[in-house]
């Protein structure tokens, strides 16, 4: 399966606003995400000049949410590169397998929630960008 940046999209997380002004509640349940959730993790206290990610996955599907603050997600399908800013806790960014991702430009207090389709398996990671380009090239033939 060849994936591209066209396979990346936002998922609206239902937001329930309290009529008395006591804040909002968002819920992820049922079929909101297009895969079964196997793992959840989050990044926090990341210095603004640090970059996280720097890899692609062979099978893993992932949704990222800025629970607090903001950060940029650099997405690369081997042909095109795009930067998406996440800053709303009721919007998830769905990332298909076979997409290189880097997360950068963390604001103070930013929290990045990752909801993923697989448990951790090192063999699912492509951590070298040149290997990623070869992987993408092999998928085109």
TrEMBL record:
Q: Which CDD domains match?
A: cupin_QdtA-like
* InterPro entries linked to this entry: QdtA_cupin_dom (IPR008894), RmlC-like_jellyroll (IPR014710), RmlC_Cupin_sf (IPR011051)
Query: Known SUPFAM superfamilies for this protein?
Result: RmlC-like cupins
Fetch the Gene3D superfamilies from UniProt.
Jelly Rolls (2.60.120.10)
Judging by the UniProt lineage, the source's domain of life is Bacteria
- Where does the record place the Sugar 3,4-ketoisomerase QdtA cupin domain? 7-136
Per its UniProt record, what Pfam families does this chain match? FdtA
Q: What protein does this entry describe?
A: Sugar 3,4-ketoisomerase QdtA cupin domain-containing protein
Protein's organism: Mesonia mobilis
- What lineage does UniProt assign to this protein's organism? Bacteria, Pseudomonadati, Bacteroidota, Flavobacteriia, Flavobacteriales
């Amino acid at each position: 399966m060849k994936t591209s940046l066209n396979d990346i999209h936002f998922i609206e997380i239902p937001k329930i606003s309290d009529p008395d002004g006591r804040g909002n509640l968002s819920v992820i349940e049922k079929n909101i995400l297009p895969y079964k959730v196997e793992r959840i993790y989050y990044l926090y206290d990341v210095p603004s000049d640090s970059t996280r990610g720097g890899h692609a996955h062979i099978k893993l599907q992932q949704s990222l949410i800025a629970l607090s603050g903001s950060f940029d997600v650099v997405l690369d399908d081997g042909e095109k590169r795009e930067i998406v800013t996440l800053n709303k806790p009721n919007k998830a960014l769905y990332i298909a397998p076979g997409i290189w991702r880097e997360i950068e430009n963390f604001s103070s207090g930013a929290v990045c929630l990752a909801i993923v389709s697989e448990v951790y398996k090192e063999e699912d990671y492509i951590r070298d960008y040149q290997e990623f380009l070869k992987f993408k090239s092999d998928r085109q033939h």
